[in-house]
Amino acid sequence: MWTETAYAKINLALHVRARRTDGYHDIETLFAFVDAGDRLTAVAADADSLAITGEFGEALSPGDDNLVLRALAMLRGQIGGQAIPPLALTLDKALPVAAGLGGGSADAAALIRMVVRAFDLPLDEAALIAASAPLGADIGACIVSETRRGTGTGWQLAPVDDTDVRGLPVLIVNPRLPLATGPVFAEWDGVDRGALAEGPALATALAGRNDLESPALALCPEIDEVLAVLKAQLPLLARMSGSGASCFALFSNIAARDAAARRIADDHPEWWQLAGALR
User: Fold this and answer.
1) In terms of C-beta density within 10 A (0-12 exposed, 13-18 middle, 19 or more buried), how is residue 141 classed?
2) Residues 146 and 236 grouped into a single domain
3) What angle do CA 15, 17, 18 make, to 5 degrees?
4) Which of 73, 75, 116, 139 yields a CA-CA distance of 20 to 30 A from 191?
5) What total number of domains does the chain contain?
6) Which residues form the catalytic set?
7) Tell me: the pLDDT tens digits for 146-191?
8) Can you say whether residue 5 is alpha, beta or left, with left for phi > 0 and alpha for psi between -120 and 50 degrees?
9) Above pLDDT 90, what percent of the chain?
10) Do 112 and 8 have their domain in common?
11) Contact 77/84 with Cβ under 8 angstroms?
């Protein structure tokens, strides 16, 4: 049996710079990853299959359109089908769907990392990032699953000094409301509010913003309450992730994070939470 974690993705900052003629958007973002997420397992089998379990499993289809199976097909196309035997896959879906946490992309990336490692495939990280881009712009960052600066549609990655965020305790909160990415980007007002700063990750994040926050709030007003509650915990930074509806808060120590998690759980037991640390 092979196993891999699909690490939750957050955007410490996300600047939307332009709407492209192909319908996508040029962005500048600071990806970071939490040390927890979905769990993918695989065993050799007579035919490919995908079973989905977990709290949020019912929201996903296990059919050929699932990004995990599409990523498996992509790898076979890159390396030749005989190198990868049929696999019975199980995805334990612990992250909410359509939540701004890169869920489907993280799952596909976990499949890619797991299969490349299990079968010692001669594909380096750069090749995997480029090959996965047509499946989803976030998959490349999720393959790396470390703090990176993303540009273009998000798959063009550059290293960043992450010593000031690595290991920081983080709390993610979602109001259990799905919010699809496409409609949020469609609501963006088209105003370029400026570039993402250069420098260490935390300083860059603090100087940045999430340009999708306002359009997401228009579609899901409950995000405003989640952000207000997180900011009231006095974290280092609280912000919406990606296109929402998940929001995160970074803390200077575990005790502060856990105290905030308890207070929020007491006041809002209906909200979903994930406590972890940045990788």
Assistant:
1) buried
2) no
3) 140
4) 139
5) 2
6) 9, 138
7) 999 999 999 999 999 999 999 999 999 999 999 999 999 999 999 9
8) beta
9) 98
10) yes
11) no
pLDDT tens, residue by residue, 188-240: 999 999 999 999 999 999 999 999 999 999 999 999 999 999 999 999 999 99
Residues 7, 94: contact at Cβ < 8 Å? no
- Does residue 44 share a domain with residue 139? yes
Q: Which residue has the tokens 């406590």?
A: 275
List the structure tokens of 139: 């998959």
Q: Say which amino acid occupies 20.
A: R
CB 278 within 8 A of CB 166: yes
Backbone φ/ψ region at 54: left (φ over 0), alpha (ψ -120 to 50), beta: left
Residue 162 lies in a domain: no
142 and 10 fall within a common domain: yes
Contact 208, 30 (CB under 8 A): yes
- How many CA atoms does the CB half-sphere of 150 hold within 13 Å? 32
The values of phi and psi at residue 29, to 5°, are: -140, 160
Does a structural domain hold residue 137? yes
**3-state DSSP call for residue 10?**
strand
- Residue 233 sits in which domain range? 169-277
One-letter amino acid for residue 29 of the chain: T
Kindly state whether residue 242 falls inside one of the protein's structural domains: yes
Q: 65: which 2 tokens?
A: 């359109």
CATH number of the CATH domain containing 208:
3.30.70.890
224 phi/psi in degrees, rounded to 5: -60, -40
Same domain (yes/no): 99, 47 = yes
Would the pLDDT of 73 be above 90? yes
Residue 95, class by beta-carbon neighbours within 10 Å (0-12 exposed, 13-18 middle, 19+ buried)? buried
Has residue 178 been placed in a domain? yes
